Amino acid sequence: MTELTSLILISCYELSFIGRFICKIWRIFFDNSLSMVLTTLETVHEKLIRLNVDGLKKIKNINWISIFIIIVNIMVIIITTTIWIIMHKHMLDIIDMVIIVVLNTCQCFCFCEYILLISYMKWMIYIINEQIPERKSCLSTFRDMYLEVIECLHQVNRSIYGVPAIVGFIGANVAEIIFTIYGYLLFPRDYINDPYLVISFIWLLMRTVNVIVLYTVGDATEKEVNRMSLVLHQRSLIEKNPRIKRQIKCFLLRRLHEHFHFELYGMCHVNIRQLFSLSNIAIGYLVIQVLFKLNK
Fold it and tell me: What's a GO biological-process term for it (predicted)?
């Protein structure tokens, strides 16, 4: 049991380091694809502006909130990493310190960029859903914009951010949470004077918030995308044009067979239910380790 615990803790530590490295490298390889996605989203946004839809100005408030969250997240990363480096300066070289700061900052930036991008696409789908029952513009126009945004969302989760999100945003964060709770909070090396206590709590809180934010955004996006079926049904009840009614029925049939799931790389489902399952596994492992440690 002791060997298994050591193996799991070492794996958690290595996964947290590999996750930071993958976030940086993967982002460079798919930079061109991300640029094409952003160009498509910008085109859809311009179409919404030309249609003079309601609610476009609300995104300004979302941008300011998101920018504030990014600044706080990066500041916490830099401050905690700097304090940790100062405590270990006698054990680390300058090159090691620079690598640690760069990897932590890049992982934080990559995570915030992904959350902003997903939130932006969710907002676009929300605007489209709100405009369909209004009957102000042609239904096919909103349908085409909706399909473009969904394709961008699939591309982002499938290739551009698929592996970094699984390994870095989920795997590395969960691994650091387990490693921090077990190694620094429950069973620290120095039981009398633990210099890592405050940093460990800050680090644990930040990683936990990141995981919760990711799963919350994924769950909200999935619900907003699937709300399209309800919106189309409401439009069909008030629509009198037979041609448009047929379009709605065809699109509803297509939506019925293409129920959207917020998945990363086609294999990791991100919603609140999966978050509870992941939390139960992590908590169960920690409880078993604590009981084993106390009965040893």
Answer: sensory perception of taste
